[in-house]
Amino acid sequence: xxxxxxxxxxxxxxxxxxxxxxxxxxxxxxxxxxxxxxxxxxxxxxxxxxxxxxxxxxxxxxxxxxxxxxxxxxxxxxxxxxxxxxxxxxxxxxxxxxxxxxxxxxxxxxxxxxxxxxxxxxxxxxxxxxxxxxxxxxxxxxxxxxxxxxxxxxxxxxxxxxxxxxxxxxxxxxxxxxxx
Amino acid sequence: xxxxxxxxxxxxxxxxxxxxxxxxxxxxxxxxxxxxxxxxxxxxxxxxxxxxxxxxxxxxxxxxxxxxxxxxxxxxxxxxxxxxxxxxxxxxxxxxxxxxxxxxxxxxxxxxxxxxxxxxxxxxxxxxxxxxxxxxxxxxxxxxxxxxxxxxxxxxxxxxxxxxxxxxxxxxxxxxxxxxxxxxxxxxxxxxxxxxxxxxxxxxxxxxxxxxxxxxxxxxxxxxxxxxxxxxxxxxxxxxxxxxxx
Lengths: 180, 246
Description:
heterodimer, A: mainly alpha, Rna Polymerase Sigma Factor, Chain: A, Arc Repressor Mutant, subunit A, 7 helices, 0% strand, globular, B: alpha+beta, eight-stranded antiparallel sheet, elongated
């Protein structure tokens, strides 16, 4: 059962939790299901962490486990290619383009489940590598590799998407007589 | 990426995950290499763009769930078991869309009216036929402090520790059985179900969602066992003729 403090933590965390659900799921409706299922599961847990950091990790882990369970049931588990090398992006993938937030989010939705998972935890939910490692039961170095690989995939996806908006890096000089 | 720096290190730098010494090393390389500096800027921008991802998503204001067949049950004693039972049965459904239940604003208004105007003085006993409510409420440390018998509905007000107040509305219904529907918002908790020819609604304000769900679970369970009790039908039929006391 929730005590007052845990209820407060849950309420403080729920926006990020829903963001994580939206990042993991293909549509809002599924995300709402996952979000609600996770909250209900948390509320009825027999024991709960009694410090805010552990509680947050615990709550997100509940959601992630539910997500994994559903994917397993559907035979669509995410694939984590931890052995793959991280691509060097210094010479390509739009390195000379400014980043448009909308393009990033659109590209994010096209990433693999594994890439969305790790980027959601670190970038959307704000977990440290150590917290993410604790949640995923992997080494911190693995998180480091996954993040790097996921960002590389995101960058590549943005290049692939025609939705990338290349913003001019330099402003044009105002025309004579124009408002400066 | 460059001599002495890897793509992973660069990402870790952007995430603030490097040790001070490592971060200083990377910063020095960035200062000397415009291409790497631009790459870091790009990583920062991508990270910032995703950081706001959750903020753009409409947060479901009212998580809604409905009861279905149990898929995984927890075994625990007393109300804990009851709560686990029904909560485990709860299969979520979207808070928006045609399938989302509509809150009964009438019962919420009645509850708010009770909070505002009614007195808790006096000793009340549960109406005949609703005896099964007592064990659930007493276990939940909720005491009956208010009874209002309307023409077609009974309003029972319960008070618990920490100023918790909960309303239970009972009326006759032409529907045999509907699943438990829960709405657990921050400032309003609502439950509704029908069984045995009766409609039940529960309303509370600022009650811990888990506690509210527990009570709703217990009452739903109790009503399913006793809802067809003839004495409840008789009691409601008797009270249907009573004038409003409000």
